[in-house]
Structure formats: C-alpha cells, structure tokens
C-alpha cells in the first residue's frame, strides 16, 4: 500500500484545509481564504511540509479545469439576455479602466516594466467564487445588482480566458509575437467555440436527452465531454482550461445544465481546494509574501476605492438607479482569484519573480478578506451612505425587471398526483413551476407549454434555487422520500402551504411535526377506497355498478386529456412510468430493500 | 508531467463516456463497460502509471466509504434475516467447490502460492455485485417485489463478507496471529467510527454552521484520517474507508447536499477505478481464457442453482426463488477490489487476476442478457422441475375451507389487510393469496382462509376455489399479475390496482370491472383539500388533527405497517 503515501501531500492539504476552513467559518471568512492560508501554512512560508508536485499538481490542474467548466456551465445566455447590452458595456469599461488603474498604481509603486504589465493584466477585480457564494447565501444572486455582477463577471471571464491563453503561450518576444500569438489563440478559440456552439445545438440535445435519466452515465458523459475539449485544446497547444470552459458553455444551453451544475460543483469544490492551496504553496517563503507589504496595502486601498467608483460610474451611466449601482459596485471590490492564477502562470513563464506573486497574493488576501464583510453588510452600508449618494439620482432610471418566481406554486415530480392539481394551482397562485428529474416528463411539459419547469433532482441546491423554493407560497411534493420532504420543509417560507406525500404513518407524523400542512398517503387512500368498493359489492350491487361506471368514465376522460396533451407521446410503456419516486431516481441496491409484493 | 496525466485522464474518461453511452442505449449497467473501456484504454501505457493507480485507489476508498455511509444500522438485522440462510448455504456449498477448482488451476499454472490464489478465485465466484445487481433489479426493488428484496439482501450480505475478507487478505503472510491482529484493529476502527458518528460528526456539522461544502470536505477529511490510520497499522485502506463511512451521519438537514457531493466525487473516482482495473489486464493467453470461462460458468450457473434451492427450501415459491437467484449471477465489484489489492501486494498471479477481471466484465454483461430470457427459462425448465413439489408446498402452507360466492384477495399488505377487515365485518367468505412466507404467521393468525403461493401460477387459484368465487380483488400493482388475473377462467368480477390512468384504461378495456389508481385518488383528494382550505371550510390545524385521529385508528386496527419493511 505504499502507493497511497504518494498522495500524502494531498491528504494533508485536505485535512488542514478542513480545520482552517472550520475556523474561518466561525469568523465569517469565505472558505477560499482558508484554502489559500492552508497552502501558505503548509508551504515554504511556514512549515514547508508539502510540495506542489505530482498528484497535488494534477489535482490543482483538475480543480482549475473543473472551475472553468462549471463557470461555462453557468453561462446561460437567456439568464442575462435582458440586461446583456448594459452588462457588456459595464464589463468592457470596467476591464479597460481598472487595468489602467492597476497599471498606474503599479507604475507609481515603482515596479519594473515587465512586472507592471503582468500586474496590470493580472489585477482583475471581482472574484466570481466569492461574490457568487456570498450573494447566494444572502439570497441576493437573483436580485438586480446580483444579476449585473454575475453578468459582468461572465463577460470578464471571457477576457480572462484570453489573457490566460496569452500567458500559457510559450514564447512572447516582441509586439509582433504577441499579436500573432493572440491571432492564433483567437482563431483556435473561435474554432473550438464554434464547434461547442454547433454541438450544443445539434449534437448535445439529442445525446443528453437519452442519458439525462441515468444519473451515473449523465455525469460521466459530461465529464468525458469536458475532457474531450481539454484534450483537443491541449492538442492545439492552447490552455486546456479554455477547452473545459468552452465545453461548459456548450452544455450550459441544455435544459439539464442546472442538474449537471449540482453534480459537478462538489467535484470542483474538492479539487479547487487543492488548487487554492497550491497558490499558497507557490509563495516562496514569508519574505516573498511580505516583500512588497506596504505596496500591497496601498494598492489594495487605492484599487478598492478606485474600482468601486469605476463600477459605480459605469452602472449608473447605464441608467440603473442609485441603490442598484451602489450594491452592484460594492460587491465587486476584491481582486479576482484569477490574478493569482495569472500570477502563477507568469512565474512559470519567468515573466515575474515570486515576490511579485507575493504582492498579488497579499493584495488578494487583503481585498478578499475585507470584501467578505462589505458584501455581507452591503445594505447596511448603503443605508448609512444613502443621503450622500442621493445626489447621483437621475429621473430616467430604467430598471430592467428581472423575472424571478415569487409567491408561486411549486410541484415536485410530474405524475398523476401533481398533474391533476396543476390547473387549480395555476388559477390560485398564477405561476406554477414543476421540478422533475425525468426527461420525458419535462418534454411533455415543454410541449404543453403551459407550466414553467426545472429539470433536476430536488435534492440539489441549485435546482431548488432555480425554482425559488424559499419564495414559494405553495409547495406540493409527490416524493415519498422522507429526507426529500424534510429538506423541503426546512427550506420553505414559514407561511407557505406545503402538501407532501408519505408512504408510512411514522413518516407522516414526522412530516406534520416539521410543519407540513397536509400529508397525502396514497396507499392508505387506495385501501379505504377499495375496501369501500368491496363493501358496496357485497351489500349493494347497484350502487357498486354506478360507482364503477363513474370511475371508468373518469379514467377515460383522464386518458383523453393525456393523449391530447402529448400527440406523439403514446404507448403504455413509457407514459407515466414514473411514480412518487420520480424526483429521486436513485434506487440502488444500497437502499434498504423494502416492502413486499403485495401492498 | 501533469500535462501527460491530464491527457491520460482524458483518455480514461472519453473511452468510459463513449462506452457508457453504449451501456445506456441497451439499458445495461455502465460498470462492465468501464472495464471494457479499460481493456481498450490499456493500449495506452500511461493509463497504468503510478499516479493513475493512486486515483483508482481513491475510487476504491470512496466506493467502500459510500457503501458504509448508506448502511442503516437500525435496519441491519431485519435485512440480514431475509438473506442469512440462503447466503450462508451458498457460502458453504459453493466456496469449497470453487476453492478446489481454483486450486487446480493455480497448481497447473505453477503459481507460487496456489492456496492464496485459489482463495481469490473463490471470492470472485461466491460474491455477487450489489452495484450491478441494483441496476438489474431497479424496478423490482422499486415495486417492492419479494425477489428484489431477497436479492438485494444477499448482495448486502455478500458486501459485508467481502469487507471481512479484505480485512484478512490484507496480511501478506497469513498466520493466525496476523489475522487476529487484523480483526482486532478492524474492530477498533469501526468502534472509532461509531464514536465519531455519535460525538465527532455533530461537532463538525455545528462548526460548519450549515455550510454544506465544509461538511463535505470535513467528511472527506475523516475518510483520509481513517485511511491514514489503516495504513499506519498495516490494514487495508478498504477497512479504513469502511470505518470512516460508519462515522458519517446521513441524517440532518445538510445531509442531502453532503451525500450528493460525496456521490458525485465517488462517481468520478469509481470510473477511474474500473477503467484502470480493465487497463491492468494483459492480452489473455489460452490458460487465462479457460480459467475466466470456468469462473464465468460457475458464477452464471452454479450460483443461481444453489440460491434457488435454498430459497425454495426456505419456503419461497419457485418463481420468486428463481428470479431472485438469477439476479445474483455476476462477479462482485468487491472481488475486483480484492484482486487489485492483491495485485498491488504482489500476492496474486497475473493469470488469476486477468481471469477474474475478464470474468467480471463478462458476467456483469451476461446477467443483463439473462434477464431477457429468464421468463422463458422459468416456464420451460424451472416450472417443470418444481411442479409436483410446488403443489405439495402450497397444500402444506395454506388453510382453505370449502368456499362459495367468496372474494379472492390477492396480496396481504396494507390494502389487503384493510379489505380483509371489511370482509370480516360483513361476514363475507374470503380467501387471501400471498407469496411472501414472511407473512405466514400473520396470515395464520388473522385470516380465516389463505393460500401461500404464487398468484402467477395456476395451482394457488385452484386452491383458492376460483370457480366458485364471486369477486377477485388484486391489491398488487404489478402488470403481469393484473394480466394473469384477467386471463383467469372465471365469471367473477375483477378489481385491480394500477400505477397510472393509462394502464387502468387498458386494464378496463381488457375486462376489469374496476381499477383503482392510488395516484389519481390522491390527486383528487389533494384538489378537494386545497379547495376546502382556500374556501376557509377547514384549516391546517383541523386537517392535522383529523389525520392524526385517522392514523391512531389505523394503528389500533393494525393496518399500519408493524414491520417498517412490509
């Protein structure tokens, strides 16, 4: 078993990162900070027990590739279409202005020419993981400022991908070299990009429709897709991570992307931890980190303030109101984790020394740390400063309203229980969102075009967020899995009406305890009904015949409705194969073998 | 260096992805296809380099980790009760035969430690795969069919046996002392896992303050700590991973997220593991092929026969026994783990290793193909063999007096019990047909007339005096059974249960008098309850009180499930 010893470095990183992560959690710091600190502590700066070679390097690389894949997966054009023009303007302006600012600051602080260029390109503001994580925790990711930030970050990411590609290109001599490298990169990227868009239109929908129901195959094929692009990019001498990003984009446009995001996120979390730790590992000792300590502090302050005003000016210019502009800007005042990536790459290319990476790292640590608290208290800060910021108020604010579900009804699982309730729910709550994990159900909903739907397993966080479970006024779950229903009851708003299904009486009691409004028990219901019919049969044959006829007509009517709803979707085999367990399809040998034949 | 590793992983995943598409197309488990992907990817030498093998070992660790997380210790006893006789019988009967054959092979190949290699051969024969079996039996387990329950109990039993074997086989030199030390350490590890389950894990959850990512990373840290501990005292990492899985709580509010996380990471590494296993196989020689096919035949033929006989002996009807037995005919993924660990320790001969892997891939695919023909095999072979015995068995375990104008109730679950209650109240004669011998005591105590037998066969209906019945009421939602009931030669009216309105419509057209669809009933009740709530005719408090009264009533009359699993 000596082989595992090879992985010891990696094992130490994970364990130490957990401990520091738990401590960081107590102080409200984001986990990223904890991971970078882990690297600093384990690396040359402090104990020097771990090196970033072999498996650690592989895992860090995988982490980064998965992060970009995940980022690509989040790039759904339709999510930001309404505000896309404004966002593009903001992102473009922001990229140019803050690079200029970073350039000026670096010049003023007296770095060398090559270092200044690297610093200017590497100092990008807006750390996607931090902003997304904290805003999601605060439930503000779907608010207007949140959407603007996410939009800007996405556009920025495209810029970063180009910068990264530039840095990974092998030789950069003069301006002509840079131009030709850039040209090759752009051609290659557009080639792969066009292939990814082409496949997202013509290849992937059919492919994933077949496999989306099988969660293991679904994940492995998606990962294979990412690796395919990675290999192609590697073959074309591009940064393989660019390939991962483009693979993500091509999958993002599919209706199954939310579900996929939820399955890729943990893998990313796992590897990215190693990645952030290796950033810390790369700092060549405490002297590097503190080599430019006062410059880093000065630059942090200047850039945070400067970048806030750049963003504020740009967002305000697009005609959003002051509060939106303020919040959208103040969320973005930290150096992106990409600075460190670009910095690390620049070290590989011997463009800068470890001291400059130390400068970038210190700046990232400082701004990320401070901004965590700023984002957490962004509303409180705005309230304090509101009177002063009022002066920027203009009359023609054009706040684009972003559609999110609110006070709506959610149905979990599209089966005969929920189906019959949907029209009534639509009448009462206006908007109905169905969550289902089966492609044929989702297709049926799409054909009908009447109700909104989210493809995915209700167990997954992203899926619940997409349907805005917290804002729902009515939730109906046709899953009989107690853990699913308990998670549901945990998350819904206090005053929401919640109907859930249960198979066992003990489960039903527990669900009532946790606040369910009503627990449906279809087996017991059927038992009542059938025994009632048996009684009628024995005691009053006429009444039995009448009741039976009535039910037969009801079933006939239901079938007709179903066939009307789905023209080409017939056949007893595939129609309604699902039952209450639709939402959670993983029935494996691992589960307690349950029940008996006759029920 | 890293670039090459990334490319290697790309090769691993792209071949695995392509072949899993094939598996998906035919509705098969992807696992044998990962192994086949490995056989293909093995032509790239880089796939078997040290780093990839380390990743594959992580796959093993996560596989066992997840297995242990999912064990519900409260349920352990009742799960194992189903399986113990059949599983133990199979071990006692099959293991010596396999050991003998394996020993002969090992000696004829001239390997250095024939007995040990024979043991590896035996594990491959005896153990069956819960991962593959779970896919094979997917719908049976979902529909709560008896044979699905039986088979998955055996799978579970086999997995536990495998963990025990790994504990013993991870010593390089097998002596009584070494084994005792291994078992001692193993027990200590599991106890440590249980302690963390009780005291450590809740602290982790509290400190994470609801942050799922931290609980996830913390869980993996626990895994790493246990693996490191296991390595330190010279145990198999599998034992460490098992104990770590014991330590993880899978209840609580963040558990969905954490389990989803662990599952996704597991899927990632497990794919690497199976592909690597396949890649480690060399181009097989004739000896290897002979050994692999012998192994496959033993698994595909001898295992099911022994299982079927012991199930029948336990009192299950021939069909249930056959269906359960025939889904236990594949090599276990644990046999692969045992084999690869042995390979890393250098205690298994290459030929034996190759044969086990090849036989595993072959049986995992064949078990699915076997499903397609099992009904035919049953009708033409098994049913004939057991016919005489079957009627005698049904006679032995049934209790029917002379009946006329009676109701035949199929199934004695919750619905069946409710109907019997009603019929008892009305004084109407009835007979229950049920195939689960676990319910025999209950039937005996509570039903006037019952037949313990397979409602898909002919004789139990004869025994239930169908010719004189006035009503047949099937409470089982299983299409083949519903069709059998409709095909019966009888004038009796037929009440059935179906999954969907569509199916109900078809059954009505086929001649059913009435078909109950629980989901439709629930849907109707749902709509009317919501309307009542909206109109202010009732409120949540009242609803809850009414339901609780109803539950109390159900429990008083014994309609609630006394045994959680029935």
From TrEMBL, chain B:
Record membrane topology: Multi-pass membrane protein
Keywords recorded for this protein, A-Z: Membrane, Transmembrane, Transmembrane helix, Transport
Gene3D superfamilies assigned: 1.20.1530.20, NAD(P)-binding Rossmann-like Domain
Domain RCK N-terminal: residue ranges: 407-518
Location in or out of the cell: Membrane
Regions crossing the membrane: 6-24, 31-47, 53-73, 85-106, 118-138, 150-170, 176-197, 217-244, 264-283, 295-316, 336-369
SUPFAM superfamilies according to UniProt: NAD(P)-binding Rossmann-fold domains
Signal sequence extent: none
Record-level Gene Ontology MF annotations: antiporter activity
GO process terms (BP): potassium ion transport; proton transmembrane transport
One GO CC annotation: membrane
Primary subcellular site in the record, as a coarse category: membrane
Residue ranges annotated for the Cation/H+ exchanger transmembrane domain, each copy included: 15-368
Keyword Membrane tagged: yes
Family: Belongs to the monovalent cation:proton antiporter 2 (CPA2) transporter (TC 2.A.37) family.
Record protein name field: Potassium transporter Kef
Species, as recorded: Natrialba swarupiae
Organismal lineage: Archaea, Methanobacteriati, Methanobacteriota, Stenosarchaea group, Halobacteria
């Amino acid at each position: 078993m000596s082989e595992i010893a090879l992985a010891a470095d990696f094992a130490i990183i994970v364990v130490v990162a957990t401990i520091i992560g738990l401590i960081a959690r107590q102080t409200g710091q984001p986990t990223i900070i904890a991971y970078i600190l882990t690297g600093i502590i384990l690396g040359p700066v402090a104990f020097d027990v771990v090196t970033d070679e072999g498996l650690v390097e592989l895992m860090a690389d995988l982490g980064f590739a998965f992060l970009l894949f995940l980022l690509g997966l989040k790039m759904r054009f339709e999510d930001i279409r309404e505000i896309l023009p404004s966002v593009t303007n903001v992102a473009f302006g922001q990229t140019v202005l803050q690079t200029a600012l970073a350039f000026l600051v670096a010049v003023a602080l007296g770095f060398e020419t090559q270092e200044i260029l690297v610093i200017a390109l590497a100092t990008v503001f807006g750390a996607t993981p931090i902003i997304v994580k904290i805003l999601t925790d605060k439930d503000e990711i779907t608010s207007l400022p949140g959407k603007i930030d996410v939009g800007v970050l996405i556009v920025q990411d495209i810029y970063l991908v180009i910068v990264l590609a530039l840095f990974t290109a092998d030789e950069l001599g003069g301006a002509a070299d840079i131009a030709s490298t850039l040209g090759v990169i752009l051609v290659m990227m557009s080639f792969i990009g066009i292939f990814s868009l082409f496949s997202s239109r013509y290849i992937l929908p059919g492919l994933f429709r077949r496999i989306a129901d099988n969660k293991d195959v679904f994940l492995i094929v998606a990962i294979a897709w990412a690796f395919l692009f990675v290999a192609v990019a590697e073959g074309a001498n591009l940064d393989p991570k660019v390939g991962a990003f483009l693979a993500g984009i091509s999958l993002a446009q599919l209706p199954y992307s939310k579900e996929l995001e939820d399955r890729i996120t943990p893998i990313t979390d796992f590897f990215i931890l190693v990645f952030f730790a290796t950033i810390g590992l790369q700092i060549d000792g405490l002297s590097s980190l503190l080599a430019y300590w006062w410059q880093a502090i000065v630059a942090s302050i200047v850039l945070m303030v400067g970048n806030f005003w750049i963003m504020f000016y740009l967002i305000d210019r697009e005609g959003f109101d002051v509060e939106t502009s303020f919040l959208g800007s103040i969320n973005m005042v930290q150096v992106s984790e990409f600075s460190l990536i670009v910095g690390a790459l620049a070290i590989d290319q011997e463009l800068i020394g470890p001291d400059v990476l130390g400068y970038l790292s210190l700046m990232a640590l400082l701004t990320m740390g401070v901004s965590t608290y700023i984002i957490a208290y962004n509303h409180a800060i705005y309230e304090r400063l509101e009177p002063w910021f009022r002066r920027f108020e203009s009359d023609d604010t054009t706040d684009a309203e972003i559609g999110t579900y609110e006070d709506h009804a959610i149905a979990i699982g599209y089966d005969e229980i929920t189906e019959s309730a949907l029209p009534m729910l639509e009448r009462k709550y206006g908007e109905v969102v169905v969550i289902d994990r089966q492609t044929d159900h989702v297709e049926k909903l799409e054909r009908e075009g009447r109700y909104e739907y989210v493809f995915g397993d209700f167990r997954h966080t992203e899926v619940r967020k997409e349907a805005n479970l917290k804002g729902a006024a009515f939730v109906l779950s046709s899953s009989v899995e107690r853990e699913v229903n308990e998670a549901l009851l945990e998350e819904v708003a206090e005053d929401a009406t919640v109907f859930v299904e249960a198979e066992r009486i003990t489960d039903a009691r527990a669900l009532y305890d946790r606040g369910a409004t009503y627990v449906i028990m279809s087996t017991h219901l059927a038992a009542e009904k059938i025994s009632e019919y048996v009684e009628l049969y024995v005691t009053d044959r006429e009444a039995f015949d009448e009741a039976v006829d009535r039910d037969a007509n009801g079933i006939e009517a239901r079938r007709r409705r179903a066939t009307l709803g789905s023209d080409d979707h017939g056949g007893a085999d595939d129609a309604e194969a699902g039952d209450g367990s639709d939402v959670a399809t993983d029935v494996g040998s691992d589960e307690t073998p349950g029940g008996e034949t006759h029920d | 260096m890293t670039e090459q590793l990334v490319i290697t992983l790309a090769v691993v995943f792209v071949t695995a992805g392509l072949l899993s598409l094939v598996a998906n197309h035919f509705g098969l488990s992807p696992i044998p296809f990962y192994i086949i992907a490995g056989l293909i990817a093995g032509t790239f030498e880089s796939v078997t380099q040290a780093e990839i093998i380390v990743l594959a070992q992580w796959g093993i660790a996560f596989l066992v980790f997840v297995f242990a997380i999912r064990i519900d210790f409260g349920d352990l006893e009742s799960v194992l009760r189903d399986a113990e006789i059949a599983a133990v019988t199979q071990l006692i009967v099959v293991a010596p035969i396999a050991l003998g054959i394996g020993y002969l092979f090992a000696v004829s190949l001239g390997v250095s430690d024939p007995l040990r290699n024979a043991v590896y051969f035996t594990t491959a024969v005896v153990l069956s795969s819960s991962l593959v079996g779970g896919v094979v039996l997917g719908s049976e387990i979902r529909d709560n069919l008896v044979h699905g329950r039986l088979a998955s109990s055996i799978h579970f039993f086999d997995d536990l046996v495998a963990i025990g074997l790994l504990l013993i086989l991870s010593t390089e030199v097998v002596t009584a002392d070494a084994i005792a030390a291994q078992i001692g350490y193993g027990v200590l590890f599991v106890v440590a896992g249980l302690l963390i389950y009780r005291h450590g894990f809740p602290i982790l959850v509290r400190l994470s303050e609801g942050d799922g990512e931290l609980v996830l990373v913390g869980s993996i840290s626990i895994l790493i700590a246990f693996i490191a501990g296991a390595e330190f005292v010279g145990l198999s990492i599998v034992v460490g991973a098992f104990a770590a899985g014991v330590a993880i709580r899978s209840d609580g509010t963040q558990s969905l997220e954490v389990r989803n996380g662990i599952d996704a990471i597991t899927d990632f590494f497990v794919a690497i593991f199976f592909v690597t296993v396949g890649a480690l196989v060399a181009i097989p020689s004739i000896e290897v092929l002979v050994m692999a096919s012998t192994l496959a035949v033993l698994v595909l033929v001898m295992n099911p026969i022994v299982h079927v006989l012991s199930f029948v002996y336990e009192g299950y009807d021939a069909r249930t026994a056959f269906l359960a037995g025939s889904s236990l005919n594949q090599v276990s993924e644990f046999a692969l783990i045992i084999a690869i660990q042995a390979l890393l320790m250098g205690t298994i001969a290459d030929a034996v290793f190759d044969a086990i892997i090849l036989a595993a891939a072959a049986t995992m695919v064949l078990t699915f193909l076997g499903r397609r023909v099992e009904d035919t095999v049953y009708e033409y072979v098994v049913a004939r063999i057991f016919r005489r015995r079957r009627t005698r068995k049904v006679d032995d375990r049934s209790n029917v007096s002379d009946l006329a104008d009676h109701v035949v109730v199929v199934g004695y679950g919750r619905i069946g019990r409710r109907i019997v209650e009603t019929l008892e109240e009305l004084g109407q004669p009835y007979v229950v047909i049920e195939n689960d011998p676990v319910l025999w005591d209950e039937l005996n105590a509570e039903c006037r007339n019952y037949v313990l037998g397979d409602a898909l066969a002919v004789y139990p209906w004869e025994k239930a005096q169908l010719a004189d019945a006035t009503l047949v009421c099937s409470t089982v939602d299983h299409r083949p059974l519903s069709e059998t009931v409709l095909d019966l030669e009888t004038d009796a009216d037929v009440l059935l249960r179906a999954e969907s309105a569509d199916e109900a419509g078809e059954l009505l057209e086929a001649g059913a008098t009435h078909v109950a669809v629980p989901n439709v009933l629930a849907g109707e009740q749902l709509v009317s309850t919501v309307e009542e709530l909206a109109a202010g005719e009732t409120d949540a408090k009242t609803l809850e009180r009414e339901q609780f009264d109803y539950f109390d009533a159900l429990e008083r009359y014994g309609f609630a499930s006394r045994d959680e699993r029935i």
